[in-house]
Write a structure and sequence with these properties.
Layout lengths: L1 H29 L7 H28 L8 E2 L2 H10 L2 H7 L2 E6 L7 E2 L1 H17 L6 E11 L2 E10 L18
Parallel strand pairs: 2-4
Antiparallel strand pairs: 1-3, 4-5
Helix pairs in contact: 1-2, 3-5
């Protein structure tokens, strides 16, 4: 029950910011305070996309809770998927004064995976990295193919120059809603 209350509080907080931004921009446009420039319309579009992603994440979470989340694996060009995920954050990184770097090996292959779920994980990791990286810092997405114990693996890492996670929190980072 405590986790549920915390989740509802977190969701309200996450939804409040883009809704407030949308409302403020729309009111300013309606009242003639801001002209409907391409830049202002782009910002509105980005806020709407953020809301859409938050709602999709909430729906995926609800489906996972009841065991209904289905994976749709198919052969995927991993290098292209990783680059596309990184490209989605170029504008945000530039606006924050953070450098985005890619170190993606060309030989990652086409493994079977669900590109939507992997893209969601990458969005979360990249978004968190940007949130916690100071101006002038960098966020790096690296990927390598590795063979270990007779299996072929992909090693994908998102690193940043942020403050990191306090040691006392590390044992809990994979606990839901921690």
């Amino acid at each position: 029950e405590a986790l549920r209350r915390s989740l509802v509080s977190d969701l309200a907080h996450e939804l409040r910011t883009p809704l407030a931004n949308l409302g403020g921009y729309l009111e300013a446009l309606r009242d003639g305070v801001l002209p409907p420039t391409p830049e202002h319309l782009r910002s509105l579009h980005e806020e709407a996309q953020l809301l859409g992603r938050l709602v999709e994440d909430l729906q995926a979470l609800a489906q996972a809770d009841v065991g209904e989340q289905r994976l749709a694996p198919r052969p995927v060009d991993v290098a292209a998927l990783l680059q596309s995920s990184l490209d989605a954050f170029v504008a945000q990184a530039a606006g924050q004064g953070v450098a985005l770097e890619a170190d993606i090996a060309p030989d990652l292959g086409r493994p079977l995976l669900d590109p939507d779920r992997i893209a969601q994980v990458l969005r979360n990791l990249l978004s968190n990295a940007l949130t916690h990286t100071p101006r002038g810092g960098r966020v790096r997405l690296a990927a390598r193919r590795q063979a270990a114990e007779g299996a072929d693996w992909l090693d994908v890492a998102v690193t940043d120059d942020g403050e990191g996670i306090a040691p006392e929190h590390l044992p809990h980072i994979f606990e839901r809603f921690y």
